[in-house]
Amino acid sequence: MWQIAQPTKVPDPGYRALEFLAPGIRQVVAGFINGSRQRVQEIRLRLNRPLMVEADGSWMLRPDGGVTVHAARAWFVGETDLMRTLERMTASSLYTMEEELRRGFITLPGGHRAGLAGECLVRDGRLLRIKSVTSINLRLAREMPGIARRLLPFLWSNGRFCRTLVISPPKAGKTTVLRDLIRAISNGEIAGHRCKVGLVDERSEVAGCFHGVPQLDVGVQTDVLDGCPKAEGILLLLRTMSPDVVAVDELGSYEEAEALRDLLHAGVSVLATAHADNLEDLRKRPSLFRLLADGGIQRVVVLSRRLGPGTVEGIWDETAGSFLPVGSFCLSSQIEPGNSW
User: Fold this and answer.
1) Among 62, 106, 165, 233, which is disulfide-ready with 225 (CB 3.0 to 4.6 Å)?
2) Distance from C-alpha of 68 to C-alpha of 59, rounded to nearest angstrom
3) Domains held by the chain: number
């Protein structure tokens, strides 16, 4: 018979999110953390299925916090586990969080985010909200100050921040790099010149706002539109906040690309991310290809996981039509001991 793990103090600030888990779940995850050198990125609760964590891999957890490949030996998430976790995440006010249930996630203090899935309430073909939650994905937010420092000299030209797109496959670090680039240019870490940054944080992942207040460091001169659709937010910031740089995460739609094109005529720089494995993959996306072709982007930072999360495969200079002579390197090698992606 496995023994339930005993909670132990864990120094990593990212693990403060464990306080939102039901007591039994929290003890099991703490057992895994204290017995493993892997850094947890996600904690997944699925009703009547094994408790799992995403770290260096996907792991089912036993009641003692150890890992198992046999589902029968894992801790199974019960209805009480889910309900107590939701109560902690919503301060026992789940049914007052209509907007969060419609969007499918809850932003927590510290910038952590809980994705939700389950039975949906639909009317006239439109999603109203998640009616019955049966899955929770707790994504742990961590800051990596200085992780993007090595990129800065290549993204600055003629006294201005270059219009920059960071691309990568999933879990290669593009949002972490984006957050640190925003912080750095806002704080004036490039040539001592501070830029006013307007961030459209549609999914609350970059600044991690809680009640509109950033929980993660995005710099002293950054204004955040939290929970705002990107296309609308880009134009709103342009009209109201006179930014030097507008930043968005996970650019994709025609409307978003067109809104960024409007910035070209206003003298405002762009900092964005997008899903793509490489330049060829990027150019297959019509909205982003047009943005490139029209000069909307000057630099493309290509990331991968080849040498670890945050591997820079190259920095493309769209104006010159070639990669800058910087080679490949891993940003995660700059992280101080005790930190991780």
Assistant:
1) 233
2) 7
3) 2
